[in-house]
Specification:
MetI-like fold
């Protein structure tokens, strides 16, 4: 009887362990995620309802959100962010697609070309921003004299990328058209992001079955129709993933703005991520910065849901 109860108890313990084994294997990762993801997220929500007064925190409810959202700086920064994202994502996707189509033609030394164009991706945002800033620094920048040509960029002194203010607004309250610095920031950001996006699209292009393209050609389909009805639909899910990466990186990235334009001239390139940096580390208003970070988290969640919706539509 004792031996029977002992063996039964062992079987019960073994059964419990085998059923819960996946949890124990995931437990270290869950602990790390809780430490570096969940705790800071919930603490930011808590901090957004606090205000520092005389070194102590005081509960202020939603006042920090009201103070952030009621300023013209926030609304301008929101529109600048959307303008930046639209230009950055469009330029990167189009350029990456063209380069991927070029590399997909099986040219000689294509592997070398792929290695060379991938170099910008491994550079940090701060380094890329500093290099592009040196190109247009007034007086001694490599390209400053080109942009200062009045015959190309208008009298009397052409354009100074880092100091020329934005043109008059077409719609009052909306900071559009953008300043030259914002256009230059979009170009620099796209230059850094093109290599990785190109690799993603190139990998998708190489999975398109050659037999289908050859059959379409035999049936009389033109190269444009083959691209439109065969190649592009098969590559579209990968482009959605690339768009997801670009939008999240564009919303949250601050290194390029910090090193290239520092939000200027004025606030012409002050995207939300840089505004968050300015409020939190420039003014030391941590409650307002936390409120803005919560709002940006909501934007990130909306972008994720939108991308998932696009991917499901593409598969359908």
């Amino acid at each position: 009887m004792t031996g029977s109860r002992s063996s039964s108890g062992v079987r019960i313990r073994q059964g419990f362990f085998s059923r819960t084994l996946p949890f124990w294997l995931l437990l270290p990762t869950l602990i790390v995620l809780a430490a570096v993801q969940f705790y800071p997220a919930f603490y930011s929500i808590f901090l957004s309802t606090q205000e520092f007064q005389a070194g102590n925190m005081k509960y202020v409810g939603l006042r920090n959100y009201e103070r952030v959202f009621s300023t013209s700086t926030f609304s301008d920064s929101l529109f600048i962010t959307f303008a930046f994202l639209a230009g950055y994502a469009t330029l990167t996707l189009v350029s990456s697609f063209v380069v991927a189509l070029f590399l997909n033609r099986k040219l000689r030394l294509s592997s070398l070309y792929l290695t060379v164009i991938f170099i910008p991706w491994v550079l940090s945002d701060v380094i890329v921003g500093l290099v592009f800033r040196l190109f247009v620094v007034p007086d001694y920048g490599l390209l400053s004299s080109f942009f200062a040509d009045p015959a190309l960029f208008g009298p009397p002194n052409g354009v100074s990328i880092l100091t020329t203010p934005p043109p008059p607004q077409v719609v009052p309250g909306i900071p559009l058209p953008p300043a030259p610095a914002l256009i230059y920031l979009i170009f620099a950001s796209a230059w850094k992001a093109v290599p990785f996006t190109t690799v993603l699209i190139l990998a998708a292009l190489q999975t398109v079955p050659r037999e289908i393209l050859e059959s379409a050609s035999i049936d009389g389909a033109s190269a444009f129709n083959s691209f439109r009805f065969i190649t592009f639909p098969l590559v579209l899910p990968t482009m959605v993933v690339a768009l997801f990466n670009l939008t999240l990186g564009g919303v949250n990235g601050v290194g390029m703005v910090f090193s290239l334009t520092n939000g200027g001239p004025g606030t012409a390139t002050e995207v939300l991520s840089f505004l968050l940096y300015t409020i939190g580390f420039g003014r030391l208003e941590f409650g307002r910065a936390a409120a803005l970070s919560v709002f940006m988290a909501v934007i990130n969640l909306a972008l994720i849901l939108f991308t998932l919706r696009l991917s499901r539509t593409g598969r359908a």
